[in-house]
Design brief:
Number of helices: 9
Largest sheet: 6 strands, mixed
Helix content: 25-40%
Strand order of the largest sheet: 5-6-7-8-9-10
Mean pLDDT: 79
Structural class: alpha/beta
């Protein structure tokens, strides 16, 4: 393969593989050991694997299968007494934008989810071609149509892609890390908020916490330095908690506090092991007790 960049997760090379010869069965079974290989439909490719995994976990997977599915494998070395050390990343991907037909299929599934009671839309843009301007425009229209009959209106939150024009995220809630914010082309958060008519701009600063900017407030959520083992999945964990808070109608500053806490708990684990609601509740109770005692 070839190396053209380093991983945003750790300072290691990203090797682009010419062929998709990467095994997904072992990764799938590590996430859910009860899934046997006989239950996997290989004809559906990676979309089929993800669908089977989500179904096994009790969720719904209304996926749209595309021929160009990015695959990423992180190679780690176990160091006695020090946990796991990233060595490199093996990628097999094509970043061509999805077709209009595929975008329309995603929009139809999103429309059905909203009709079934979905209360928030989360977008994770990895700049791999899925989150196109057509998809974003369609989701905005869906959220607007639902807001005519639902109160409060359906929020759309996005984790932006690096090197992507942020104009496609018009009117949304953006949750960006420091690198994504630095590459956005905006100097001040209020400038970004105004030009894109954002409902909110959230910038994560790793162990330093988060900053939140809305039309009515600018809030800094102080972080707590931790001896993190693995940053993989921390941003996704924060995004998940953000979506949970938005769908429940919680105050955004409080949601950001919980999202930062969840991300901090995530980096203490090896791999993408999700933080459960019970664990988050226990950690919050511990912090509140410490605050009262102080």
């Amino acid at each position: 393969g070839t190396v053209n960049r380093t991983s945003p997760e750790a300072p290691v090379p990203v090797v682009n593989l010419p062929e998709r010869a990467l095994g997904a069965i072992s990764a799938l079974r590590s996430l859910h050991p009860d899934i046997g290989t006989d239950r996997v439909e290989f004809s559906l490719g990676m979309a089929g694997l993800v669908a089977k995994m989500v179904d096994a976990l009790g969720g719904k997977a209304p996926l749209v299968a595309t021929p160009n599915c990015p695959i990423k494998v992180r190679v780690m070395a176990r160091v006695p007494g020090r946990g796991y050390q990233p060595l490199c990343r093996l990628d097999s991907e094509a970043c061509d934008p999805i077709t209009d037909s595929e975008a329309d299929q995603l929009l139809e599934r999103s429309r059905q989810a909203l009709l079934d009671g979905c209360k928030a839309i989360l977008l994770c843009d990895y700049a791999k071609g899925t989150v196109t301007p057509r998809l974003c425009d369609g989701l905005r229209r869906l959220a607007w149509d639902c807001s005519k009959v639902l109160q409060p209106p359906i929020p759309i939150a996005v984790d932006p892609g690096r090197g992507v024009d942020w104009s496609r995220y018009f009117g949304m809630i953006i949750k960006a890390n420091e690198h994504e914010w630095a590459e956005s082309g905006y100097v001040h958060s209020t400038q970004c908020l105004g030009e894109l008519a954002l409902r909110a701009l959230i910038v994560t600063h790793g162990s330093k916490g988060m900053s939140l900017t809305t039309k009515s407030e600018e809030t800094v959520i102080d972080g707590t330095p931790v001896d993190g083992l693995d940053p993989c999945g921390a941003g996704d964990q924060a995004m998940a908690v953000l979506g949970l808070g938005l769908s429940s109608g919680a105050r955004l500053a409080d949601v950001c506090y919980l999202a930062d806490m969840a991300a901090r708990m995530q980096v203490l684990r090896h791999g993408c092991v999700p933080v459960t609601a019970q664990e988050l509740e226990a950690e919050l109770a511990k912090q509140l007790t410490s605050t009262v005692a102080a």
